[in-house]
Amino acid sequence: xxxxxxxxxxxxxxxxxxxxxxxxxxxxxxxxxxxxxxxxxxxxxxxxxxxxxxxxxxxxxxxxxxxxxxxxxxxxxxxxxxxxxxxxxxxxxxxxxxxxxxxxxxxxxxxxxxxxxxxxxxxxxxxxxxxxxxxxxxxxxxxxxxxxxxxxxxxxxxxxxxxxxxxxxxxxxxxxxxxxxxxxxxxxxxxxxxxxxxxxxxxxxxxxxxxxxxxxxxxxxxxxxxxxxxxxxxxxxxxxxxxxxxxxxxxxxxxxxxxxxxxxxxxxxxxxxxxxxxxxxxxxxxxxxxxxxxxxxxxxxxxxxxxxxxxxxxxxxxxxxxxxxxxxxxxxxxxxxxxxxxxxxxxxxxxxxxxxxxxxxxxxxxxxxxxxxxxxxxxxxxxxxxxxxxxxxxxxxxxxxxxxxxxxxxxxxxxxxxxxxxxxxxxxxxxxxxxxxxxxxxxxxxxxxxxxxxxxxxxxxxxxxxxxxxxxxxxx
Length: 476
Prior knowledge:
The protein is built from 15 helices and 19 strands. Helices cover about 30% and strands about 25% of the residues. It is globular.
């Protein structure tokens, strides 16, 4: 990225001042190396977001950012509905409520190592993955409506999971305000057979071990010890979320002139939050959030079944589940006043600090677990939300490593078998239905997640707690 338009206002903070019709500045959190590696399109997109009606504070960019559809991936922006604020389907993304769920196993690395291949085969057998993958669950119309309205609560009532899970899920497992009636029949049809599936792309199911602990006190509260084995699930709302994004982006684009909105980029199609269209999209998006929460809940049930079969002594309790493609109504202090804001996080993770009422009672005095997925075969991280990130980024942090090359470039650089063999030599077992998908997601196609996490930590967006390394990766 060319930095001529940026002012460095902190070691890890850069600002593009308001110019032309920008309503707020654009702020990027990164070290110098990460910033220079970002595509120029990231800054262009962040400035365009800063031009949208009703935006508050700044258009924020996380350390893992790369350019996306309209908003940069790694973008955060908050809008005030009372002051003409908008909601943008591009600011949420197509994979609505894609997120990470991490579970304890109660097992240590040596206990799992001897059964690693067996676990990999059984998880690959029982958790459907890959493009267009379907599972053994087929929802009728009534079940679809209930799932979209109630999320992980519905999954629990249907026999998937344990009641204690809900306490450790963002929104406690159910996003209020969902409107299944705002979701098209086509979107519902796409999802009818996809519950309990990982999908493709960068989605995964991993067995991970705690390699390092940076904050022993917080790690103890999160139940983390060196050599402990965890399970992480990374996926979202599958075909339903993608269809919602596609349909509403088109409708928002067609309606922009009617609302008097001048779009700096067609991909930033949006609608006033107070409009019928804005409210309808919000209701559909919330239904997709519930779909993603239910999906991860079902996968959790499938994973528990596998462990009961192979290692009956395992006890898979939920550490936390948090999404990174959402728009949430939250209360934030701006200019000394509390305001109700609609916070878009696209490829960015909510990171509430200690004391926040939205956190589980057991974690409220320490802060929210912030789950950062790495690329296939590389480390992941667990961070903790901090109160100081509220004025910095509306309590937001990074979500992963962030791509440094396109999937097409990755395919030109690697072959799937080459990647699988290289990771096997390092002790990581890969199972995937697609050699092409493995090549597209090669670790070298991503930025250094350790550098991304370190920048987020040093910028004050979240606090480092633990580093995880993979043992098994089930890849879509």
